[in-house]
UniProtKB/TrEMBL annotation:
PROSITE patterns referenced in this protein's UniProt entry, alphabetically: HTH_LYSR
Record's keyword annotation contains DNA-binding: yes
The keyword Signal is assigned to this record: no
Source organism of this protein record: Aurantiacibacter flavus
Protein keywords: DNA-binding, Transcription, Transcription regulation
Pfam families xrefs: HTH_1 (PF00126), LysR_substrate (PF03466)
Protein name: LysR family transcriptional regulator
Family to which this protein belongs: Belongs to the LysR transcriptional regulatory family.
Family annotation (InterPro entries): LysR_HTH_N (IPR000847), LysR_subst-bd (IPR005119), WH-like_DNA-bd_sf (IPR036388), WH_DNA-bd_sf (IPR036390)
High-level lineage: Bacteria, Pseudomonadati, Pseudomonadota, Alphaproteobacteria, Sphingomonadales
Domain HTH lysR-type as annotated: residue spans: 1-58
């Protein structure tokens, strides 16, 4: 099938009529009919049956449409990308960040990057740390922000900070929130687990093992924001990184510092000799400032209070 065949077939299938497809494509009905007949001639089978003045998709058309829909989506994406490239005048930055960084920190850094230069454009993707290296090497992003990025040749890394884990509980579950909570106090307490949620969660599990502490894991969550929601529903307590707490924390929960403190370094990684190096460096500096601002004061509950 040629691209024009795909476009017309997709429009007829979606609209169920020649007239609807013609309106969608902004062409004449005879033009749509001609292209559709040519597509059927090329394929050697009917795509639609004409029944009582209506077009009914054949089984072959249903099977073909799943593949055509993917191609049509890719063509639409290509068209948008080509249009956007032509409109970029102030530079374009592609950013990949951890979900926790994407909640508030990265949006603040992007907004500051664009202050005074409305022609800068950007796109942001949330990824887990293990996906960052591939995105960088495939040049799918200009800046990646995550934990434990591999030290590969051609990639420059900058440490941005060491976020800590915060204990999140129902209101005042461990007393006044300005008092730290020892990790031993979590033994056999109903807990929303965060295993496999990244290096920070791994560091927490290591501390549990080191102190021989075994919370009663009633639910396992792979994201901190889902874990917070489960605490709010009364399922137990959990831990979350301080950036998630700063963005999503609410006064109905309490937030405690853990003893010992659980931290892990977070990095910004860029490709060396990138054509967007200057823009990437400016974004990283704005990101560093936003991380400092949103890391919160000494008491996590204050950080969560609007």
């Amino acid at each position: 099938m040629r691209l024009r065949h795909i476009e017309v077939f997709h429009a007829v299938y979606e609209n169920g009529s020649i007239s609807g497809a013609a309106r969608m494509l902004n062409v004449s009905q005879p033009s749509v009919s001609k292209v559709l007949r040519h597509a059927e001639d090329q394929l050697g089978y009917e795509l639609f049956q004409r029944t009582k003045g209506r077009l009914v998709a054949t089984p072959q058309a249903h099977e073909l449409f799943s593949e055509v829909a993917e191609v049509y989506t890719s063509l639409s994406k290509l068209s948008r990308t080509a249009h956007n490239i032509g409109n970029r005048k102030g530079g374009h930055l592609r950013i990949a960040v951890l979900p926790a960084i994407g909640l508030a920190v990265a949006p603040r850094a992007i907004a500051r990057l664009c202050e005074g230069n409305a022609e800068i454009t950007s796109e942001i993707t949330t990824l887990h740390s293990r996906e960052m290296d591939r995105f960088l090497h495939e040049r799918a992003c200009d800046v990646a922000v995550g934990f434990r990025l591999n030290s590969n040749a051609g990639i420059a890394q900058t440490e941005l900070g060491r976020p800590r884990l915060v204990l999140v509980t129902p209101h005042d579950a461990f007393g006044p929130p300005d008092q730290p909570v020892a990790i031993e106090d979590l033994h056999e307490v109903n807990f929303i687990g965060v295993r496999d949620s990244g290096p920070l969660a791994d560091a927490f599990v290591n501390e549990l093992n080191r102190y021989e502490v075994a919370p009663r894991e009633v639910v396992t969550s792979h994201t901190y924001y889902a874990a917070l929601a489960l605490v709010r529903e009364g399922m137990g307590i959990t831990v979350a990184d301080e950036y998630t707490v700063s963005a999503l924390g609410t006064p109905d929960l309490s937030y405690y510092q853990l003893v010992p403190n659980v931290q892990a370094p977070i990095y910004a990684a860029t490709l060396e000799n990138s054509p967007n190096a200057d823009l990437a460096d400016r974004f990283i500096e704005n990101l560093r400032a936003a991380l400092t601002e949103l890391s919160g004061p000494n008491t996590p509950e204050q950080a969560a209070t609007p």
